[in-house]
Every structure is written in C-alpha cells, then in structure tokens.
Specification:
Largest sheet: none
Low-confidence stretches: 1-22
Distance between the termini: 46 Å
Number of helices: 5
Length: 91
C-alpha cells in the first residue's frame, strides 16, 4: 500500500517535471513538434507561422492586461508582455 502510494507520487512528480519542460513551448510549437510528416508541415507553413504569431500576441496581450490591472492597484510591474514572452519561451 505504501509502495503503491510512493509510485503514484513519483509519477505525479515526473509528470509535473515533464509539464514544466513542455511549458517552454507554446501550444502551437508543441503541436507542430508532434507532426513527423514534413510534407504536412511544409503544406501549412504559412498557416503555422500565422498561428504562432497569433498565439504570441494573445500571450503578450494577456500579460499587458494583467499589468494594467496591477498598475491600477499601485503594484509594481516587472515585465511587459513582450519581455515576458521572450523570457518564458526563450525568443
């Protein structure tokens, strides 16, 4: 019983580590990385590029909107949306 619980806890920890590693990718980058067929990727190259840019803008906008709320409460804002995106996703 104890051994089973330990295994479950280890699996949860391992899954969390994997999730944290994946978080360095955007959802679009993750999806693209799971397509092994380069013909598919090249067929949708422009759409993938557009989806990545749209996703980046959504992340930047969300951070900037949150920062505006913090500023209205006199809180200090450390990174703007573009800075956050570049730091989080190593861009």
């Amino acid at each position: 019983m104890v051994l089973e619980n330990t295994k479950k806890e280890n699996n949860i920890t391992t899954n969390n580590l994997k999730t944290n590693k994946i978080m360095k990718q955007t959802a679009v980058e993750w999806l693209v990385s799971h397509f092994a067929d380069n013909r598919f990727l090249s067929a949708f190259e422009e759409e993938i590029k557009q989806a990545k840019e749209m996703e980046k803008q959504q992340i930047v906008d969300a951070v900037d909107e949150t920062n505006n709320k913090w500023r209205s409460q006199k809180a200090e804002v450390i990174l703007n949306g573009n800075q956050y995106y570049n730091k989080k996703f190593n861009k």
